[in-house]
Amino acid sequence: MRHIKIYESYSDEELKDLLGDMRSVGQALTEEEEDMLNFVNQFGGDMSAEDYAETLYDYFNNPEEYGIDKEGDYYDMIWYLYENSVEDHARFMLGGSPMRTGTYSRWDAGKIAQEPLYKLYLKMSDYYSQNKK
User: Is the pTM value of this prediction over 0.90?
Assistant: First the structure.
């Protein structure tokens, strides 16, 4: 396959070509896996549960600081992942906002690590890394 790379980002066209090649040899991803693979291509892969949570939190709450369009599909995926795999596992201060300062753990990383969406993120991160070799 002509588009296998080592730790470089795929362009949208190269990712489509790779998925097409996979289908042609009888390997296919589910729609959910393809969505996550596209997300990993932009977001980056192999983050710990705490780094995943922290990055999603920052991107979700401050998209303009990262050049993320709040009306785009990428932000929609960030919102979906934050709401469904991270938000419920934040450690909150008495005022109701997530803890954002100090040296203590801000997220219950053990619970995030058990979330099906985080597991899918790791699976597709691994898949993405393997196909870039």
Answer: no
